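Continued from yesterday's entry.
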Amino acid sequence: MTIAPVTISSDRLEVVDFTPPFMTTSAGMLRKWEKTASGLLAFKPLDPWAALCIMVTVVVAGLVFYLIARIRRMANVSDGDDKFDIWNSMWIAIWSLLPHGDEPSVRSTPARIMATGHWLSCYILVTMYGASLASLFTVQSLDSDITSLGDLLTKPSINLGVVENEFIFNNLKSHYDAATGTTYDKLYQRIQASGSVLKSSTEGVLKVKKDNLILLEEFPVIEHNVRNDANCDLATIPDTFMKGGFGIAFRRGDPLGKELSIALKEMQEDGQLEALIQKWFPQTKCDLYGDRASGDSYLTPSKTFNLLIHIP
């Protein structure tokens, strides 16, 4: 008896018996996630807490400018800064977020010291914001118009990979007939020509990330890798093929097969199988099709603070 992700196929049914499928499956395509930018791009790089911190910083800076003006006015020091009211003070703090600054400018030593620190902080914030916004437009090297196996076959520049001696490779190999020229025949020819027959799924995932390879793999394996990738750098193409199911294989005629089939059916009916699927394939932050916000592109308070404390 074999309990493993064994796909029920016609070739295997000739030599062993299977229980009914305990999990539906199909062949899919694993790719490196293509980053896209959408929505209100001007606000997308800002983490909500970072935006709040920026607003608070501007208000506090404006109040400090105003406080300096009040103190100099009370001390009868007439250098221009004593004439600043609350609106001028706030305007200086807000305008500092723009690279070129604006009038009115401060003239007293205390206000200039405050302004220097505030302008430096604003310059760093604007620079980091620009870098974060630019990263949202970064598109990894993969054609965005690939939505099916047919699209993939029309793009010879994209490398395909498949794991040796697994269901997809064996199925393509056993049914290959150059004379018929079916989609699967063309797919097998493409794989053989590229030499991308891999030893394991782990090797395939590494090549997907490093070399922008598209890996042909059974969909549950793809889903597990996408959902559990630490940086959400993987995604799958919506189209699937070779639809089938996983079953428990046992020796032909073994009476244990009937008992297993009944037990699996009971587990399906009372929800135990669905609970196991949810346990091992949870709905994580990583979307199967790469449609999620990238936290790495956010400008967060911690990133800003770490940069500020490392400035010489």
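--- second protein ---
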Amino acid sequence: YVMTKNSHKQWYQRRVRASESFLLKSESLSSLTEGELRFRCDSDAASDISSVQGTSCHEEPVNEPRKSGPLTIEDIAVDTSSEASSYTNTRSNQLPWFSGILNNEDFITTNPYLAKFLGSLDVLIEQKKAVFSDSSLSDSQKQEKLNSLTLPGSKARLEDLCLFFQFTPSSKVYGYAEFDLKPGGGNIPLSLHNIEEYCDLSRSFCLDTGIRRQMEAFKAGFNTVFSLCHVRMFTPQEFRLLLCGEMSPDWSLNDLLEYTEPKFGYTRDSPGFINLVEVLVEMSGPERKNFLQFATGCSSLPPGGLANLNPRLTVVRKEGEGGDACLPSVNTCVHYLKLPEYSSKEVLRERLLQSTQEKGFHLN
């Protein structure tokens, strides 16, 4: 919000009053996170801001996607002929809102083959720099060394690849065969002379300018479900926690004893239940995720961990023949773990891990 000095003062006073009013409410604050506290205070303040400015937080401009469906070469041509070309070609200061969010690790995940190839070009770039920085070599010797440089693990020179300043998608589903990374890129061969620019433009296209329409569509769609003005109330870590829950399950012995309920054949003093708790505490991160997926149908916990799992994880005794060969089973809808009484903790661990790695519903 663009405010004058007086309206900013009014906004600040209203925000203070809204915060004080909130703190005077009888609702307990002990269970609220910092992000939830900011959200509630700022929500009241946002309505005050709207009354001062005559605007609404829901009026944030969002660039709507032009049309649905796969990206075509005609769409790209339109983009690059206008504002998108300023990102790709002139590298202007007006970058997309998502610029810099994705990094090389994301590139490796989304496009591993191109990322690996650009990684080999990075090795060539370092070799090229080493040749130029070697003061003991004459210009002719440097040129000779540059001409002898080959791709890592190959005898082929860079020029032998016959590549140009173009991006080639991995599938025909994208609707185009190639895209110029700069004006006239189809006529600019890749060489040691311009290898740095090629790597920079390729990564920029894959992580920045080339996904602009998709990111704008995601932003517009998200804003219709959850107003982006409220998202600012949270840090990225808090918002990820609200959306995805505890992605790295963490629990202690006390957590399991307090928030896990033994029933129908088990009590908190039963050897079988105590062995289960100890096995769960000793589990690694991936094993805990597998256990949660097996027992609850979700590999993560809600914000707050086991304390906020609803319904609570319940352990009941599984009766029947089979002894130590019998596997645990579950009712994921009600978070029921049906556990046989095993002869030892080691057997329990082995059978439980075996069950968590099973696919399908025959143990459900």
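Confidence is low (pLDDT under 50) at residues 1-5, 22-32, 37-56, 58-92. The beta strands are 166-167, 179-180, 260-263, 313-317, 329-331, 336-339. Will compare against the first tomorrow.
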